[in-house]
Write a structure and sequence with these properties.
Structural class: mainly beta
Distance between the termini: 21 Å
Strand content: 35-45%
Number of strands: 49
Amino acid sequence: MKFPHYFLLAMTVSNLAAAPLHAQGMRADYERALSLEKRTANKVFRDRVTPNWLDNGAFWYRVATGPSEFEFVFVDEKGQRKAAFDHKKLAMLLSEQNGKKIAPQSLPFSSIQIAPDGAWVRFRVEGKTYQFDAVGLRESKENISENALAAARRVVPSRRTGEESGINFINRTVGEVALFWSGTDGALKQYGTIKPNETRRQHTFAGHVWVVKDGKGKLLGVFEAEDDEGDAIIDGTFALPKREPKTEQPKDPDTAFIRDFNVWLREGEKEIQLTRDGSKENAFQVPFFWSPDGTKFVARQIKPAQEHKVFIVDSSPEDQLQPKLKTIDYLKPGDQIEQERPRLFDVKSAKEIAVSSELFSNPWSIEELKWDKDSSAFSFLYNQRGHQVLRVLRVDKNGAVSPIIEETSPTFIDYSQKEYFKRLEKTNEILWASERDGYNHLYLFDAKTGALKNQITRGAWMVRAVERADEDKRQIWLRVMGAVPGQDPYYEHLARVNFDGSGFKILTFGDGTHKWQISPDGTRLIDTFSRVDSAPITTLRDAQTGVELSELEKANATELLKTGWTLPERFVAKGRDGQTDIYGVIIKPSNFDAAKKYPVIEQIYAGPQDYFTPKSFGTLNNLHKMAELGFVVVQMDGMGTNWRGKKFHDVAWKNLKDAGFPDRIAWMKAAAKTHPWMDLSRVGVYGGSAGGQNALGALLFHGDFYKAAAADCGCHDNRMDKIWWNEAWMGWPVGPEYADNSNVTHAKNLQGKLLLTVGGLDTNVDPASTMQVADALIKADKDFELIIFPGANHGAGESPYGQRRRMDFFVRSLLEAPSRAN
């Protein structure tokens, strides 16, 4: 695999000459750290259940029982679990049929078709379909397909990171194949090889893209992970591209259209110009929104956003010697954004109906435009720029505008994470999410009058998301956080509640964070819960009552623990106010010695959009890898991060430099009192993107506590970063708070040792943001290190080279030891 070249600029007075050879202990630490990912891969079994539902409510699934070992399980309509078939007998019969030994735990198929009562199963092996039942094994004429991820032909970057998931890569070729992850910049990172007839279980996230090639580099398939774990069958065949069926658009006798940026109406052979103020700079656009009776329509007039070009230099392109200049469109805070205005027209009179824009004059966005079924009015969701006003507006057929729902906040409305707006057309109601009482809850409104009918949920906890809303049963299934007393408030549970607020009930049980899968008919749910220190347990439950029907799987992490991997420790301490609980984790090296003193390294990301401390079971390789070098690694969420209530969250308002540091420092001091092996005289911190901004901020604003920081691709000045994220928390218009929160402004206050890293082709955060910090540090005569990764995009510091250089930096800075393993 070819990696981009890397370039080191050392802006430091200290001697960065080649380090001397390591002592044996340090070399061993590096070996454990760098081999951790490989050693811990595919070491946890029976931890995932991906159901294949049948019409009668029964289902089957395949569960990993060991490396390249699986078992098929059938759960009948009563919820009782059993083996889907006699694995030993089938393996024996298949061995006889094919003339080669087949193990019962490694059957050569990954998908089955099963009878509703489990009386028979069908499967495909080497292009043939077989049926296995009480009579025995025989070929079948039934044509069944394997339930597997589609193998695409084109390599694309991973464009999103969804929920934790997994892919079982099944190598059915005759040779060894190589597995790669396609990063967000399209760069391929190799994740080892898979031998013929071997299955490799790969942890991943929904939306991540994986690439398989043979020994000669020939592409064998591109697979995108889904929300549920899936199989990727590697056999050299590709899925046909999906083609959307052609549908003929219905024709309206009075057809509206755009000509020269204006709206026209065609009546037979006659064409009537309805508007004359359209222009290239303020054009009308399709589609139009027609009233159900066809007498009126809404056209959107849109003033485009300004151009804001960001120029980045590809200094080391792979296809030529000379550098290339690249240009991206990139709006920043304060820029002119796209301005949309809905305009109402009457077909019969061929005239515009005047609509006052007073209540939607400064939109960040106008969405969800829809007519009432009786054509009496249309409504839409208006998000005002600055994110302090959110309205549902109703415009009647005569043009009168009235607010149906209005949310206001003196700080911010968290539209990107908590917005929920659902029309209930049968009953003319609206389901709406709001933090008006200090916590995110659901409300029921009258869609015609805007009257609040009732608050649906309430309490000192949060609605994270609506899973499903059943209008007929008037019930809602919710993802909730903090609703179970005595548990970590970040743990997610499934709950059900009636539209009128009655009957609230938690449907998942167990002290941990939960994931679930609801059956297609809504009667059952598969509930999996875990903690960072407790492997997953999966049960089948009644979706109405939460009553357990059967335990499906209890994960086995024995092989993981044999590698020396240590369970994280959960720790809770009071924050800056002495009252609010701050939740975090502590990770020790595998050769931990309580008699020693360990420097502490914090991984930080204080972005207000979410929380970031891990809650579910996983290997957490990046944290453990750093710990293996002789550190205690910690992570926690301070005030200003999300999902703990409006007061907790509002700390971030125009105050991103706070980053929860007073809470983080208080948490670490409390931890050190009960964990005397934590040495708070040597504390480091690292993070990327917003976490890069935070990591440098630690040295600028709290250099008396933090002694070293590694900041990757940081948005160090919020005026330099993308518009949506920064205006969401820093507000609009751009005020003096932006400069006050900038790391550039405060660069002169640097204390401690600093490593800056950035990708030269970062399209997420303008790489000039890092360079402007470097410029300010040089002007302030501050020592620091800077690594620029030519050709690399956002997150360059998480590349293998970037991670190793970060490890070296902390070993030198906090352990004062030689830093290279070779």
